[in-house]
Every structure is written in structure tokens, then in C-alpha cells.
Amino acid sequence: MSTEPTFSFATTAEDVATTFRDEIKGKNVLVTGTSLNGIGFETARVIAKYANLVIITGYNSERLKLSEEAIKKEIPEANIYPLVLDLSSFASVRKAAAEINTQPEPLHVLINNAASLWVDFKLTEDGLETQLATDHFGPFLFTKLLAPKLLASGTPTYTPRVVNVSSVAQAHGAVDFDTLATPNQAKYSKRGAYLQAKSANVLTAIELSKRSKGKINAYSLHPGMIFTNAFQNEEAIAIWQSRGALGPDKKPNPASAHPWKTIPQGAATTVAAAFDPRLSSQAGAYLDDSTVANHLIAPYNSDPVNAEKLWNITEKIIGETFTF
Asked: Which residue stretches of the chain have pLDDT < 50?
């Protein structure tokens, strides 16, 4: 008798990919933000064992090459396509999307994993705050431009997916609609911008699923507390030390109320969101520990009025309108 797979805090990306290898086979997947020693790389690595094609992205071509070589060394038969992409630049996003759109293959899954965390206030070349540009506006535009590729993969038995890697931080944030198009340095804080971005990730997944009317299923998720470069920022270190997550040595505190995950554990929920067939009837869901956890979404971020408002403002800012 077959049993439904069950996942937990300790589940790894490898576990999930092995469980859903039949769903991954033949799929073309794009993962943004795939530098070594990150959850995006781990996501791409385990998917590459079974997928038809894995497109990996990064804004630094040399680091992107290292990721490609590492995957190919472990999995010589993997079909890896490196794509230079700077999500903070609309021009770079358009160039990267145009490159993918010239390829003959459809796109089954888009994983918006890349993020800019805890950075000082700075405007992008498009006049937007860098953290929100990289974490929300860039991925939104990229998703819009690749939507035809995603729609081309749909069949009567398969619905393409978009996965937004958010954070438990969404529960503490709310989008400041007044400063999206006109950033206000006086009101800026690194943590505040991060919370807004993670809130936007959840709202966008909900609204994308709604507007596509069954043609694209979008999900958002909390990967877990993972000790990455984001915790090397002095301001972030001070905040997490005050909460007991980091010790005096600036390393993860084993006794933290917020338990730490390894990178393989942190990438697990992303792979589940991309391939767990049980999610097909739960478009717009939010996942934690590789399972649906909609009860953890802050009321602000599950409010359809906020989701629609953010969508409309974002389309105006990027100068692009979604069509399905």
C-alpha cells in the first residue's frame, strides 16, 4: 500500500527531490540566485539530477560559472544553462528574459529565490530602492516576461508553477504603498525594507494565482532560519543577537527559540513548492517545513485588497501588464 509522503523540519531538498523525481523528470526549471553555499544552489543541484533542463542565474558571471561547474562535476549528465541576471536592473531583467524567450523549450517552473538582504539605502538605475527592486519588482517583471514560456508548458494534466521564496518575516511586515514608486530615505530601514519585500512575495503569489485563473499556480514559502551571508551584516547580527538567535561569537545559537536549518534543509520547502502534486489544488498557498502553512500568513498578507493594490501599483512601476 502506498502512503502519502510526510515532511518535517529535518527534511532535506534531496529527500523531497527523490520523493518527487517522477514529477521533476522532463521539466525545465529556472532558479534565480544560485551562488555556491546558498539555498538556490542546493535547489538547482537536487533538481538537476532529474530535470530535463535547469537554468541557473546570478549577477556575477564568474560565480555563476562556479555553480555550473560544481553541479556538472557531481552530475555530468545534468543539462545546465547559466544566465546572467541582475534583478535590481530592469534592463538586465529584460535582456535575460529575452535570451530565455529565444530558446525553443517551454518553462515548467520559475523559482524566484534570489534576494538582496539588509542593504544600505540606495536607488537603482530605475529609481527604486535596491532591496525592494531586487526582491519584488525585478522578480515580478521577470515573471511577467517569462509568462508566455510558462503558459506554453501547460497541458490538461499539468499547470506551470511560480515559487516565491519569502520568509517568516512576512508576518511582521506590511508594504508601504506610498514609498514604492518614490523611496523615502528618511523612512528607510534595512529591516523594514526586508519585511516589506517578504510581504510582497506572499501577496504576489496569491494574486498571480488568482489572476491566472488556473493557468499558473504560484506559491510562497518560508525556507527556515539558515546561516547565510545575510547574517554577516553588523546590523542584522545585532538584531539576531538581541533575539537570542546568534550568540556572542556571531554564530548560530543552538538554544535559539528559532531553530536553525542547514542549507539542504532550507532548500527542501522550495523543491516541495515546485513539485509536490498535492499542491495543485492549493494555488497561492504558503509553505513551511515543506507543507502548507496558510495559518502562518499575516492577515495583512492574505488580504485580497492588499494583493490587488500591490499588483496594480507594481504593474504601473514596471510599465508592463500581465496577460494570460
From this structure: 1
